[in-house]
Design a protein that fits this description.
Distance between the termini: 41 Å
CATH superfamily of the largest domain: Aldolase class I
Radius of gyration: 20 Å
Number of strands: 13
CATH architecture of the largest domain: Alpha-Beta Barrel
Shape: globular
CATH class of the largest domain: Alpha Beta
Largest sheet: 9 strands, mixed
Strand content: 15-25%
Helix content: 25-40%
CATH topology of the largest domain: TIM Barrel
Order of helices and strands: EEEHEEHEEHHEHEHEHHEHEHHE
Number of domains: 2
């Protein structure tokens, strides 16, 4: 079986315990306005073009087998309707202006890469984290990756928004040591406004994972003007306090790296002008969460 992989990051320190390999799968049904990997949202390999690096050599024009790249008066233009993600343009680009985001890999191929880091797993209590995009958009491939990890006695973590079919999510329970579960906004309408989807399925799957005995760390991007208000924090804490197996809530402070990424790939960024939260606001949110019996951590 093959899946579409966005990236395989070695020596990852923030996606579960110990030193880990984070396998980023491509495709996500959400469209969060603050997304730090907007190029991963598409479900198939897609071309990325950094205009600031282009030297207008036109090597990509002749290399593209589908005629998707054409020279205009002052720049090169890609017709995405013709592009099939062959990647020939990226291979010949001398300046790194062109890149294909996403590649097909087998689960065994991913595992070969991961096993190169086994000495770090063993020394640090680390393992493999499957993330995205949204990994549960490729449920069969996720299951095969998890099975390969278990076959090799490697700790597994699944980083998910939970926006997937209940049966697909529950099938992962016997093979997943830790869930890193995104909880963004409790109000359904506001959740839809900022992520493009409702949160009913997300919250339902979270509760049912707890009932199945899963070990869960909730994670919430903490974004001023979006979900960092006391009302949302309190509602989140009250919900999480009723989830069995939930160990803690990790508040993830918003930062502006996403703005640069959107600019780099010519994408609109709708949270422009939003600033990171203050230490005081993070501390207050943590206190609210812990008042409901849920441990809260954050990195300021």
């Amino acid at each position: 079986m093959k899946g579409v992989v966005f990236d395989v990051k070695r020596y990852s320190l923030h996606d579960g315990p110990g030193i880990r390999v984070s396998v980023h799968l491509k495709g996500c049904p959400l469209s969060c306005l603050w997304c730090h990997n907007p190029e991963s949202q598409d479900f198939s390999p897609r071309p990325l073009f950094r205009k600031d690096r282009c030297v207008a050599c036109e090597a990509c024009v002749s290399a593209c087998p589908n005629g998707a790249v054409a020279p205009l008066v002052s720049r090169l233009e890609t017709d995405v309707s013709l592009c099939q993600g062959a990647g020939e343009c990226a291979k010949v680009c001398p300046s790194g202006a062109r890149e294909i985001c996403g590649r097909e890999m087998t689960a065994c191929g991913v595992m070969r890469d991961a096993l190169k880091e086994r000495v770090f797993f063993d020394q640090s209590g680390g393992g493999v984290t499957i993330t995205g995009g949204e990994p549960m958009s490729q449920p069969a491939f996720v299951m095969e990756l998890l099975e390969e990890c278990k076959r090799n006695e490697i700790h597994t973590a699944l980083d998910t928004s939970g926006f997937a079919g209940e049966s697909a999510v529950m099938d992962t329970v016997p093979l997943t040591d830790l869930y890193l579960y995104d909880v963004k906004i409790m109000d359904p309408g506001k959740h839809r406004e900022y992520t493009g989807v409702d949160n009913d399925i997300i919250l339902s799957n979270l509760k049912k994972l707890g009932e199945r005995g899963a070990s869960i760390h909730a994670r919430m991007p903490f974004i001023p003007g979006v979900n960092a208000d006391d009302k949302n924090v309190l509602a989140t804490a009250e919900f999480l306090s009723g989830v069995k197996g939930l160990r803690l809530l990790h508040l993830l402070p918003y930062h502006t790296a996403a703005e640069d990424k959107h600019d780099r790939w010519g994408m609109e960024y709708r949270l422009r002008g939003t600033f990171p939260p203050t230490e005081q606001s993070l501390r207050r949110a943590a206190e609210i969460v812990e008042s409901k019996g849920v441990k809260a951590i954050y990195n300021s």
